[in-house]
Amino acid sequence: MSLIILDVDHFKKVNDTHGHLVGDRILQLLSKRLRHNLRCQDTAFRYGGEEFVILLANTNDEEALVVARRLNRVVCEEPFSISNKLTINITISLGTACLQAEDDEQGVSLLHRADQCLLQAKTTGRNRVIAWNYLSHVPHLKVVSS
């Protein structure tokens, strides 16, 4: 199992510019777009604010990376149509991690690794994917720009 955590880049600016109703509509449309680009066995949910978590069943690091890159692309390449007069372009930052044998049963350590990757994606420019990989049992971040 793998986990993706993502955050809408500069979401406060959307709310400040267009209002919270438009911001809420963006989140609804984003949720729909995410679900449309996932398998039926995957689970996407709003984690808080403008953050979403996606649980990917039966996936490894590389498969999670492929999904995260696809989601990043389908969000940034097509504007979100709010009305016939308003479309808004958004981007997302994503962090991925894969379940490891030493992870706790509640998934806290898995979520923490993915969240560290998300934080790195946001601090290094946003609109990108950063994946957590294990090579020789030494954790490191793998930066993958969109």
What is the gist of this entry?
The chain is α+β, with helices and mostly antiparallel strands and 146 residues long.
Estimate the global geometry from the Cα principal axes.
globular
The tally of domains stands at 1
How would you sum up the major sheet? 6 strands, mixed
The value of Rg in angstroms is: 15 Å
Q: Which strand order spans the largest sheet, edge to edge or round the barrel?
A: 2-3-1-6-7-8
CATH architecture type = 2-Layer Sandwich
Unreliable residue runs: 134-139
* Mean pLDDT across every amino acid position: 92
CATH topology name, in short, is: Alpha-Beta Plaits
Tally of extended strands? Answer: 8
Number of helices: 4
CATH class category: Alpha Beta
Name given to the CATH homologous superfamily: Reverse transcriptase/Diguanylate cyclase domain
SSE series: EHHEEHEEEHEE
The percent range for helix content is: 25-40%
Structural class: alpha+beta
Strand content: 25-35%
Q: Gap between N and C termini, in Å? A: 23 Å
Protein name: Diguanylate cyclase
GO molecular function: diguanylate cyclase activity
Pfam family, one: GGDEF
Domain GGDEF: 1-134
